[in-house]
Design a protein that fits this description.
GO molecular function (chain B): DNA binding; nucleotidyltransferase activity; protein heterodimerization activity
Domain Transcription factor CBF/NF-Y/archaeal histone (chain B): 11-59
Number of domains of chain A: 2
CATH superfamily of the largest domain in chain B: Histone, subunit A
Distance between the termini of chain B: 50 Å
Helix content of chain B: 40-55%
Radius of gyration of chain B: 23 Å
Oligomer: heterodimer
CATH class of the largest domain in chain A: Mainly Alpha
Order of helices and strands of chain A: HEHHH
Number of strands of chain B: 1
CATH architecture of the largest domain in chain A: Orthogonal Bundle
CATH topology of the largest domain in chain A: Histone, subunit A
Number of strands of chain A: 1
CATH class of the largest domain in chain B: Mainly Alpha
Strand content of chain A: under 5%
Radius of gyration of chain A: 21 Å
Low-confidence stretches of chain A: none
CATH architecture of the largest domain in chain B: Orthogonal Bundle
Number of domains of chain B: 2
Shape of chain B: elongated
Structural class of chain A: mainly alpha
Largest sheet of chain A: none
Mean pLDDT of chain B: 83
CATH topology of the largest domain in chain B: Histone, subunit A
Shape of chain A: extended
Keywords (chain B): Acetylation, Coiled coil, DNA-binding, Nucleotidyltransferase, Nucleus, Phosphoprotein, Transferase
Helix content of chain A: over 70%
Largest sheet of chain B: none
CATH superfamily of the largest domain in chain A: Histone, subunit A
Region (Disordered) (chain B): 98-127
Structural class of chain B: mainly alpha
Largest interface: A-B, 62 and 53 residues
Number of helices of chain A: 4
Protein name (chain B): Chromatin accessibility complex protein 1
Mean pLDDT of chain A: 90
Chain lengths: 119, 127
């Protein structure tokens, strides 16, 4: 299935925002540099995905997990990202379970309300 | 149900990252958890590379070449070498080609003799 070329690129405006936040204010970045970074980011996504997929295949699993992504960092020699990603994963799991219990709580409240109305 | 932006704290669009991930061969399902981490680490990567390039630049203007230099010199960035070559002017390219041609003309034919006193310097391109 043919994909539009832009679908595999990350939006330049977003990449620019990330770069600006990372650098001190007052630094200007050439368009070529921004485009280069955007392309590099896309290639990096593929690179990480490939490394993580290899790990999953070696373990005879099919679905990628967050931990696989973290383990992949060591394989591709980006050990410096292991710790921040570990924190990100914790943060993600906390958010996910908070959302889950919030929606379950809401469901419980709705059921309670229905019971009262039945009286 | 709207997710507050501060909770997600990501800039890159998850859907686009997912599209890229799925274009990789052998990838089957991409769940939200690995998608989140891949997106996150890609942002970290961009910031990291930008900061290093900026240090490389010694100025307040970040240019492509500052990034290309780092990519070419750091082996962990090997995967980027093809898409971020160092760029040279046409004149520099011509000078490079002229030097190569001169060198090929000077090199004597393959001499497997052990007594060879000529040092032949290899001019191999390192991939």
């Amino acid at each position: 299935m043919a994909e539009k070329p832009e679908d595999l690129n990350l939006p330049l405006t977003v990449v620019t925002r990330i770069v600006k936040e990372a650098l001190p204010s007052g630094v200007s970045i050439s368009k070529e540099a921004r485009t280069g970074l955007a392309k590099a980011a896309s290639v990096f996504v593929l690179y990480v995905t490939s490394a993580a997929t290899n790990i999953v295949k070696n373990k005879k699993r099919k679905a990628l997990t967050g931990q696989d992504v973290i383990d992949a960092m060591k394989d591709i020699e980006f050990d410096r990202f292991v710790e921040p990603l570990g924190e990100a994963l914790e943060h993600y799991k906390t958010m996910a379970s908070a959302r889950k219990s919030a929606s379950m709580k809401k469901k419980d409240e709705q059921e309670d309300a229905e019971v009262i109305e039945d009286d | 149900m709207a997710t507050p932006k501060s909770e997600k704290d990501l800039h890159l669009p998850l859907s686009r990252v997912k599209t890229i991930m799925k274009s990789s061969p052998d990838v089957e399902a991409v769940g939200p958890e690995p998608l989140y981490l891949v997106t996150k680490v890609t942002e970290l990567f961009v910031m990291d590379l930008a900061k290093r390039a900026h240090k490389n630049s010694n100025a307040n203007f970040l240019e492509y070449k500052h990034i290309a230099d780092i990519v070419q010199e750091d082996d962990t960035l090997d995967f980027l070498r093809e898409i971020m070559p160092r760029k040279i002017t046409v004149r520099q390219f011509k000078e490079m080609m002229a030097k190569k041609a001169a060198k090929n003309g000077d090199d004597s034919s393959e001499d497997s003799s052990e007594d060879s006193s000529e040092d032949s310097s290899s001019n191999n391109e390192q991939e």
